[in-house]
Design goal:
The chain is 30% helix and 36% strand. By secondary structure, the protein is an alpha+beta fold.
Length: 120
């Protein structure tokens, strides 16, 4: 499935995989995020941290009518306040999609799949 953006020059089709990649890149830049997790953690292994090329496996982009909803599966760092980290990720994702793709997002849902101790 893709999102179609029309402007005075024509139309652009943006696939959900591209949106998921942009969202994953924006999320890992946030403080407190260790990495992205697979949305199928039972099938793929217990909360394995996804590499950069697999961010789409940790993000679901749902298009319901004109609304776009994002579901993200993340792993947070130990000692961080999960609610603050989730809020920062939501804000960063909405801002990044608006500036990069010109896409307004209705909701960004964060699912914390695990907590990891990181070396500082």
């Amino acid at each position: 499935m893709s999102i179609e953006v029309k402007n005075e020059y024509g139309k652009i089709d943006i696939t959900n995989d591209v949106i998921a990649q942009v969202v994953g890149e924006a999320a890992i830049e946030c403080y407190g995020i260790v990495g992205m997790a697979s949305r199928h953690h039972i099938r793929d292994g217990l909360t394995d941290i996804l590499r950069k090329e697999n961010f789409a496996r940790g993000v679901i982009v749902r298009n319901v009518g004109e609304d776009t909803h994002i579901d993200m599966y993340v792993i947070v760092g130990y000692g961080t306040k999960i609610s603050e980290v989730a809020y920062q990720v939501q804000s960063k994702v909405k801002y990044t999609l608006q500036k990069t793709v010109g896409l307004s997002v209705k909701s960004v849902n964060i699912f914390v799949q695990g907590v990891r101790v990181t070396n500082l």
